[in-house]
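Ex. 9. Protein: ATPase.
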Amino acid sequence: MDPVRNPFAPGAGQRPPELAGRDREVAAFEVVLERVARGRPERSLVLTGLRGVGKTVLLGELRAMAVRRGWGAGKVEARPDAGLRRPLAAALHRAIRDLAVRHRAPDRVESVLGVLKAFALRANPAGAKLRDRWQPGIDVPAATGRADSGDIEIDLVELFTDVAELAQDVGTGVALLIDEMQDVQPDDVSALCAACHELSQSGAPLVVVGAGLPHVPTVLSASKSYSERLFRYVRIDRLERADAERAMLAPIKREDASITEDALEALYETSGGYPYFVQAYGKAAWDAAPGDPITVEDVRVAAPEAEAELAVGFFGSRYERATPAEREYLRAMADLSEGRDEAVPTAAVADRLGRKPSSLSPARDSLIKKGLVYSAERGRIAFTVPHFGRFLLGRDD
Ligand SMILES: Nc1ncnc2c1ncn2[C@@H]1O[C@H](COP(=O)(O)OP(=O)(O)OP(=O)(O)O)[C@@H](O)[C@H]1O
Ligand SMILES: [Mg+2]
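Predicted structure tokens for ATPase:
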């Protein structure tokens, strides 16, 4: 059918034509927003799940919900080996600009911007030459004596407090969204936890919403033991049958097209209900169909096409990041799990490769750092990418 009208949207962070199966999370966040705005104690939400299940998309939806209520909102994507100060400053700058539109006292807004600038300038290493110094694009003079101590924990508490007060002036709040939360560095995790703790105690209307891989809870509790009490972890998973059907059917119907019952079933089977795969196989089936409706035959014809695209865009781009030694490790995991998405014992991986477990620690740690695998439970390891084992077994090298 007409590729121009193809509604499906495979791609990282791509807004799906139909956000299916996330009503529970959306409803929970409604409650969070309402409670936080009223100064009630509330735990922050952290979405966890495998690659491609729709964490980034959902985070974007939660952000939109906050903005619709007149909140200030900003988003950060954490990166390994990079501090949070700069991206955090940019995200809060965004949030302050949202709030400024509704604020009646420009001088109050300016003074908070001054504190933000002071906070941001601290991202420059002490003694950096003027021409090497990074300049945040904030159009006010930097304040002094607030959020600029250089101790990220102290600075965050002060900055969050000031930004939250600005929101309080206009009767709303601030939502700070942090994607790829497993990549936040230990010092920054500690500081974030401490700041969230402090703010929730004072009833300030600021909420941190995170998203990341399944081991985020372990990463956070390693830095601050009380993180369990600060965050409510919500597991985002593949779509159930009815939701997956809605994700495919609703966009097709909106284009005045149709799909047969068995084609829908075949799409569910091949995609396993994983949102990324739902989009990828749905898109290919639409393009392969010579006419309306999309049939099971079209789905069959389209599958290799979809798989070829996934092999490059979804699996390949990640596989490329692994060194030869790491690829061996991944391959052994795939062999052991026989292509199913299951955790395997790290000792069995070592056994399979005929190596001592300790000698494989560097490869494993590096794969964790690259976000390709995670430690599901002590002594076991799993792929963060669904169907990754199957993909590896299908390669000839
Ligand atoms: N609820 C949903 N219903 C249908 N499609 C969805 C849904 N959520 C996400 N998708 C689709 O799934 C794909 C992946 O979404 P997204 O990038 O948000 O995943 P992610 O969990 O952030 O992945 P990663 O861990 O790689 O960052 C996108 O193509 C998006 O359109
Ligand atoms: Mg994402």
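Check your answer against this statement. Residues 114 and 140 are 6 Å apart (CA to CA).
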